[in-house]
Amino acid sequence: MRRSSIALPGPLPKERQDWQTVRSLLPYLWAYRGRVLFALICLLAAKFANVGVPLVFKDMIDALTPGLNPTQTALLVPVGLIAAYGVLRLSVSVFTELREIVFARVTQQAVRVIALRVFRHLHALSLRFHLERQTGGLTRDIERGTRAIGSLISYTLYSILPTLVEISLIIGVLLTRYEATFALIAIGSLTFYVFFTIKVTNWRTHLRREVNELDSAANTRAVDSLINYETVKYFNNEEFEATRYDGQMKNWAAAQVKSQVSLSLLNMGQALIIAAGVTAMMWRAAAGVAAGTMTIGDIVLVNAFLIQLYIPLNFLGVLYREIRQALTDIERLFRLLDENREIRDADDALALSGGACEIRFENVGFHYETNRQILFDVDFSIRAGKTVAVVGHSGSGKSTLARLLYRFYDVQQGAIRINGRDLRQLQQATLRAAIGIVPQDTVLFNDSIYYNIQYGRPEASHDEVIAAARAAHIHDFVERLPDKYETRVGERGLKLSGGEKQRVAIARALLKNPPILIFDEATSALDSQTEKSIQAELEQAAIGRTTLIIAHRLSTVMNADTIIVLDGGHIVERGTHRELLACNGAYAQMWALQQQDETDSALVEAV
After folding, report:
1. What is the pLDDT of residue 10?
2. Which of 151, 414, 471, 603 could serve as a FRET partner for 347 with CA atoms 20 to 30 Å apart?
3. Alpha-carbon distance 203 to 224, whole Å?
C-alpha cells in the first residue's frame, strides 16, 4: 500500500459551542421524558424537605428555650416537631434515592445509544479518514466522551440543579421571614462567587484542552509503538521509542502543573468569597439576637441555611469546572459525528440484485491527491463468470482498482458499473456483500482462528467453516495446534506467519461465497509449493464467479481469460497469456525477468 498516494485530511470540523453540545445531547435524554419528569419531581420534593428541616429545627429550639413559651409544658410542643423533623429527614433521602433509581436508566441508555451511533458513524466514514486517523487518540476521545456524558448528567441533575433549587427556596425564606439585608448578603456573595468561578474557569479551559490534547498525543504514540512492536525490535529502537514517549509525557506533565496552579488560585479566591459572606450573615444574625428582634432559633436557622448554601456552593466551583471539562470531552465525541461521510448512498440508491455480475471500468480516472493522478482513462470489462487479471509494477495502480470497486473512494472521471448500474447508484451494503476479497495485507482480529474464518459469513455453520479451511489448505495446520481452531491469533494476527494469515484470509473469502471475487496478491506470502496447491483451489473457486486478480507474480495469472498490464496508471497491454507473450512487449519482458529470477533461485537452492 503506497502511503504517499493518500490525500491529507480535510479541514477539521468547526469547534462546537457548549450550547450546541448540550442541544445535541438533549434528544437522547428526552427519549425518556417520563423518567426525566418523575426524577425532577423527586428532586423538587427532596429540596422542599431539605429546606423544611432547618425551619422545623428552629421551631424546636424556640419551643425549648426558657421564657419563650412559659405557659406550655416542656415536652408537649416539641413532640410533633420532632416527628416532623424525622419525617423530613427521611423524605430527603427517600426522594433523592428515588430520583437516582429512576434516572439511572436514562443516563446509561443515553451513553449506550450515543456510543453505538459514534461506532456506526466511524465505520461509515471513508477509507481516507481511517488511513489518516490516530487510533490511540481516537479511542481515548471516545472513552472520555462517553464517560463525560454520565458525568455531565450526574453533575447537572444531582448537584447543580438541586443546589439552584435550594438556593431559590432559601432566598425566598430569608426574604419573607427576615429583613432584606440577609437576602441581599446571600444574593451578593452568591452572585460574586458564580461570576468569579465562571470567569476564572473559562480562563482555565484552554489549559484543560491542552492537557487533553497532550494526553491523547501521548496515548497515540504509545499505542502506535506497541502495535509496531516487532518493527521496534527489528531496529533496536526501544530507547528511541521511550524517548519519544517521554517527550510527550514531559509536555503533558508541564501542562498538568499549569492547570493545577490555576486550580489552586481559583480555590483560594472561592474560599475568600465564602468566608466574607458567612461572616457578614452571622454578624447580622448576632446583632438581631442582641437587639431582641431575633431568637436563638433564628440564629440557628440562619446558620443552618448558611451551611446548606455554602457547603454545596463550595463544590459548585468544582462541579462547574467538571461540567466544562465534560462538555469539552463530549464536544470531541460529537465532533466525530460531525466528520463528513465522504462516501454516501444516494437517496434513491438501489440494492444490487443477487446472481451473476458483470463489471465494467468505463474510462476511469482517479487521484488521491489532486496533484498526482493514479489512474488514466482505464477501460475494461469483466464478463459474468470470467476472470480478468491486472499485472504491473508496484505503484502502477493495481490495488486502487479493488478499492474503487469496493467504493472506498469515488472515481473523479468515468464510471464503474455492475450489471450496467453505476456503483454510485447502488447501496454500499449490498455492493460489498456481493464481493469477497483476499487482500495483500491480511489483518486478523485478536480472536480465534475459527472466529476469523467465520467472519466471512458469521451465520455459517461449523461444517462450512471447516470446509472453507480445508479448501484454503489451512485445516491440517490448525489441527496440529494445541488449541486447534480456538487458537488465538494475537493483535492483528501477529502470532501467525504471513502465509498462515493469508490462508485464513482465503478461507474467509471462500466462506463468504460471493458472486464477485478479488484476489489482491492473494498468494504473495506463500511458498511456491503451497502456492501451487492453493492456486488450483482459487481457480476452482473462481469458476462461475466474476473474478479480478491483482498480481505481481505472473505465474498465478496464466489461466486468466484476460490479462491487463498497467503501467503508471495506463493500460498498456491486454490479452491472454499466450497473446501477450507473442506481442513481445511489457508483459513478455516481465515474464522473462521473473523466469530468470526463479531459475537463479533454483540454482542457489541446488548449491
Report:
1. 39
2. 414
3. 33
